[in-house]
Amino acid sequence: MLKWAAMSPELAPDPRSFTVPEPTAAPPPILPGPVVPGPTPPVLPPEPPPETAVRPNRWRRRLAVVGLVLALLSVLELGYLYTVWRQVERVDLEGSLTSEPNGGVNFLIVGSDSREGVDADDPNAGAILGGGLGSERTDTILVLRTHTEGVTTMAIPRDLFVTNVDTGSEGRINAAIQGGPASLVRTVEASLGIPIHHFVAVDFVGFGSIVDANGGVTIDFPHPAYDTNSGLSVPGAGPQTLNGTQALAYVRSRHYTEQIDGQDVPDPTSDFGRVARQQLFLRTLMADIQGTRNPLTFNRVAAGMSDALTVDDQLNVLDVMKLARRMAGTEPESLVLPTYGFVTSGGAQVLGLADGADGVLDRFR
């Protein structure tokens, strides 16, 4: 207005004729068009919670704890076995054993049918007493050799006619135990010319308790079998679990008879068949003991061993564990010692070493 007042009247606009311009109209709104689908974005997994980042470490710790517990149990088990092993009867063989070589090791294993203290009412009496009480004899004599290739065994017939090196008298080799284990070791070494590095005796009275502690032992019988002398009675074929009484009757059977197609068929191999059955049984029992994971079973078996075994004073628990592993993990090679039968001047039927015996004995020399 001040500027207009300074103008000439002709040029100043008439305020009455001044019009305010109309406001510009707003642009029409833009309506949304049809939606065109685009590519679907990938679905990402949810972010893991913070604690899952340390889960691997947590599992490692748990595994470490489990491993530590198992190791501790193994140590305790070994400690218990060592404690039991200290209770096993030991004998001093008076320097009769051969110093252990770097190669193979020969174990002289005998099964004793000592009947001392056996009650006629004992469940095992039928298998132990047999024809009646008598002086101690070695029911089984076995040489077992461990070497880098495996295990080799040889049965020594108990009727083998030899000279007792301590007395100078001739007789069956199984009678040599009457002079004690050292006398038997010396007689075996002298008569067969093989070194003996360790001695193990199994008392058949305690043998049954080991089997029962293990829960029995399962043997696969091709046919029903029996032996009225030992008390063995297996009514059916196939896998049969033997308790201590039947196991004892099985390993001591000398008149093993199978029932085949309704016929009674005695074992024609006599003592050799018995030894083969004993080896099968021992392998099965050792495999069961090695494979057990029940500490109670293991402890019962170990305790039974302390009552059933007599060993030389040089044999330690690690030697026995190594022997058990070898027997359980391999199929021992069984060799037959060649013999022939003859009658002594006193009328006794005995056995002598036949041609070819040296070839077998060389495997243990």
Tell me the layout of helices and strands.
Layout lengths: L1 H5 L48 H31 L3 E3 L13 E8 L12 H5 L8 E10 L2 E6 L5 E3 L6 E3 L8 H12 L5 E6 H10 L3 E5 L3 E3 L4 E3 L3 E5 L1 H8 L5 E4 L2 E4 L4 H21 L3 H14 E4 L4 H13 L3 E3 L3 E5 L5 E5 L3 H5 L4
Parallel strand pairs: 1-14, 2-7, 4-15
Antiparallel strand pairs: 2-3, 3-4, 5-6, 7-14, 8-11, 9-10, 9-12, 12-13, 16-17
Explain this structure to me?
- This protein has 365 residues and is an alpha+beta fold.
- The chain has one domain (83-364): Aminopeptidase, CATH 3.40.630.
- 34% of the residues lie in helices and 22% in strands.
- It contains ten helices and 17 strands.
- The strands form five sheets. It has a seven-stranded mixed β-sheet with strand order 1-14-7-2-3-4-15.
- Helix 5 crosses helix 6.
